[in-house]
Design goal:
The chain is mainly beta and about 200 residues long. It contains no helices and 16 strands. InterPro entries: ConA-like_dom_sf, DUF1349, UCP022704.
């Protein structure tokens, strides 16, 4: 996103503070709590709202982008971007460890969660950027590894009148101590169109 600058980490608020969140230069180093997760009902039957997300307002017509590095080694380790209206309405998108390899995916929740994903083994150990762009009644999610091409991840519904917040998130449903280095957190104008790259 051109014409943007780093959003101050201290200007956003944590949903479910984590055991460690320390600035290191321009970066933010975090470490997750045990069994942290976001999920509502579908297939698993449980509700989890214990994951970590650093959130600031995301009005219609704006986008948020987050860049991170993480060693996702345990099942369901995950990091990326969350866009949240409330505990029943939210989207998380990023990279998650599943079946022994990193997967790019998204969970869209309107009272119940759904999950879409695709393997990206070549993204292991890279710097990943996830971007959520809000326009009208739509939330468009894209991602890329390092300076590679943007990939479309998801087009999801979000009510135009919804008051949403967005920012980096991370979870470790099967353990504690997932370490994530967030290197970028920026807001800017929404994408021009569905098929326009940022």
């Amino acid at each position: 996103m051109t014409g943007t600058k780093q959003f101050p980490w201290s200007d956003a608020a944590w949903l479910n503070p984590l055991p460690r969140a320390e600035p290191e230069g321009d970066d933010l180093l975090v470490s997750t709590a045990y069994a942290s997760d976001f999920w509502r009902r579908t297939s698993y039957g449980f509700i989890r709202d214990s994951g970590h997300a650093l959130l600031a307002p995301l009005p219609v017509g704006h986008a948020v982008a987050v860049t991170f590095q993480a060693d996702l080694t345990t099942l369901y380790d995950q990091a990326g971007v969350m866009v949240r209206v409330d505990e029943r309405t939210w989207v998380k998108a990023g990279v998650e460890a599943t079946d022994g390899t990193p997967h790019l995916g998204a969970v869209v929740t309107h009272d119940t969660s759904d999950w879409s994903l695709a393997p990206v083994p070549e993204w292991a150990g890279t710097s990943v950027t996830v971007r959520a762009s809000r326009s009208g009644d739509a939330l468009t999610i894209r991602a890329r590894a390092s300076e590679g091409p943007w990939r479309m991840v998801r087009l999801a519904h979000m009510r135009p009148d919804a008051i949403a917040k967005a920012g980096p998130f991370c979870c470790s449903p099967q353990r504690e101590g997932l370490r994530v280095r967030f290197t970028r957190f920026v807001f800017g104008p929404a994408d021009i169109g569905l098929h326009e790259t940022p």
